[in-house]
Amino acid sequence: MSSHSYEAALFGEFFSQDLKPILNRITLHSESSQPFQSREIVFEPLDAQVQRDSGSEPIILRARKEISDPKATWELFSYLKPESVRVHPEATVRPWATCQVTGDALSFAAALGYVRRSQIYKRGYAFRRGSLLILMFQQEQVDPKTQLPTPAHTDTLWEVEVKTALPIRNTQETPLKSAIEAVLEVQLLMKGLLDLRRQDV
Fold first, then answer.
1. What range does the record give for the signal peptide (predicted)?
2. What is the pTM of this model?
């Protein structure tokens, strides 16, 4: 058995005009919801291109911080390549490592030999449903002068991620199978309103 921790997830997107019915249905089937705004910075190793040229996939690091919470610290996490569709045809299952960073996550990533590749601001709603986190958000634009986020255009697509809130070790107490089933339950609940699907990312 692998020593990795995993995330099980499904993804979807929809147009702004469908926001209200989708928001209502997710709220109805969740224990809690709150607005959120986060900043995510994507890093790749200095030799990422060399690794790609030699046929191996570099490990990408992401630093995420909740801007909506003034006390929030940076969280550094990394996903490995999703397991094959043959093994998990219904949901995206990928090895996931995470750690809290006190202080400056950006310097920490640089010390690990990583360079900053891009940044994303997301604003939307976060829902909790049992062991799942459901994120519904639009990506905000970044003002090139101030580097601060500006509100998304009204016609910007909404993105949805339904995923396990914490990394799962595939053990008898926390079988991966039950995490996948929880994610598929949400897929069923949203049927007809929102198409949630597996994706290789």
1. none
2. 0.89
